Amino acid sequence: MLCELGPAWALSRQVGSCCETKSPPALAATFDPVSGGRSLELAHRRGDNAHKAPLEQQPRENHEDRAVVVWVSGLMTSHNPHFVTRTACPACRGERWTPWYACRFTDAPIRDYLQAFYARQGGVEFEHLEGAEYVVVECRGCGLVFQRDIPDEWLSHKLYEEWINFERASRLYPKTLAELEGYAILLMKVLAWVGKPPADTRLLDFGMGQGDWCVVAKALGAECHGFELSEASARHATSRGVKVVPEEAVAGGSYDFVNADQVFEHLPQPLETARWLGSALAPGGVLKISVPRRRRDTRGELSAGSWDAAAGGGPALNSISPLEHLNCFNHRALATMASAAGLEMVGLPMRFEYRYLYPGGPKQVLRNILVPLYLRAVPRSTVLFFRLHAGAQLTAHVG
Fold first, then answer.
1. Which residue, 212, 253, 356, 393, has fewest beta-carbon neighbours within 10 Å?
2. Quick check: 12 and 152 in contact, CB under 8 A?
3. Whole-number Å distance between alpha carbons of 341 and 221
């Protein structure tokens, strides 16, 4: 449940409006969006076209109605009460960014994208997005591209429980045989790598969705738990026999392998979550993080407004889709975040990489032979494995 997100969302739970926060006075600050500090001078722009232009093309204005916000642990409230503004890079905590793009959620092309993308799943109530902006920046330190203004707890719950209707989404996006086959292949490689009998191997699927990965793991004989914030998804997984664990049971869970597949792009504070998942690993345990990889020309596609392909399921801007994909990683950003979280990258040994090859014909088998070799020579992947650094300091935190 989203109210269990912990310190990452402590601020957003308290905010009814910018003037009604109950945060301690020592943590309150007045933020100047023009000269001010950490939000890249991006608040309260006016004008017919300013809200649609790439940020470097937008004029500076004299803002007399400067916003009052509250800053807590890298987050502060937006002028829309349902958004918070991240004031540091969520992957490396850097404070030097390059602005890429800004557009109000309620203006074209972002409104058109949201209408098209969510229409079949449930739909968007745009009155809750009034005054908020889709702002994309790039961290100059680690290269992460991320959305500056993100939904708070209340809006996130509405997004994932109402605007994405569980029943509709389940019918629209059923798991294919190829996807389930991929889970089975990966799990067999992992079980071989861990080197224990499956019944003695503890696995965790973080952000398990409907529990498909856990069901396949159980079928292979492993002890597998799932963690999921969506109430509807967690109930469905439980009905399938998946053991769903609460947040407090994850840290210290002594898992041999933690799977975080297509989750970190959604998180408000991925660095803290990586530390938290590190605390769930058994000695020698492995954390797998898999995220959509940032495309080479994402900035150009943003400026060109290539939203039609993303709304139709194409790849163009899916990796930075408004409201959901808050973080857009490349290899360097993901590796930097993991290192800051006390994790070190490890590779799946080649003897296990090639123990099981995907069926599907000679071309697919050849691809699965060559791709691991290529990625070792040219590190571009955003599907990475990590272990704890010796002596890493861990904190239990999800968000």
1. 393
2. yes
3. 31
Position with higher pLDDT, 364 vs 45: 364
Distance CA 339, CA 330 (A): 14
C-beta of residue 383 within 8 angstroms of C-beta of residue 375 = no
- Which of 175, 335, 357, 218 lies closest to 270 in space, CA to CA? 335
Phi then psi for residue 307, to 5 deg, are -95, -20
Percent of the chain topping pLDDT 90: 53
Distance from C-alpha of 42 to C-alpha of 55, rounded to nearest angstrom: 8
Give the least confident one: 152-156, 197-201, 293-297: 293-297
286 HSE (CA, 13 A, CB side):
20
Residues 142, 327: Cα–Cα separation, whole Å: 12
Give the chain's domains with CATH numbers: 2-171 (no CATH), 175-293+329-388 (3.40.50.150)
Query: Bridge-partner residues for 225, per DSSP?
Result: 204, 243
Output the DSSP codes for 24-81. Answer: -GGGEEE--TTT-TTTTT-SS--STTTTTS-GGGSPP---SSPPEEEEETTEEE-SST
User: Can you spell out the DSSP letters for 192-246?
Assistant: HHHTS-GGG-EEEEET-TTSHHHHHHHHTT-EEEEE-S-HHHHHHHHHTT-EE--
Residue 395 backbone phi and psi in degrees, to 5: -130, 145
- The amino acid sitting at 38 is R
Which residues are within 8 A (CB) of 366 and not within 5 positions of it... i.e. 6 or more apart?
Answer: none
Q: Where are the alpha helices (DSSP H) in the chain?
A: 10-14, 110-118, 153-158, 166-172, 177-194, 212-219, 231-239, 270-278, 298-304, 307-311, 331-340, 350-353, 362-377
- Do residues 33 and 66 make contact, with C-beta atoms less than 8 angstroms apart? yes
What is the pLDDT averaged over residues 267-279? Answer: 96
Strands 202-206 and 223-227, by their bridges, are parallel
* Pairing assessment for the beta strands 223-227 and 243-244 based on DSSP bridges: parallel
Structure tokens belonging to residue 38: 């950490």
Amino acid identity, position 223: E
Task: Write the DSSP symbol of residue 148.
Answer: S
Residues 6+ apart with CB under 8 A from 14: 21, 22, 23
Cα radius of gyration rounded to whole Å, the chain? 21
Taking the whole predicted model, whether its pTM rises above 0.85 is answered as no
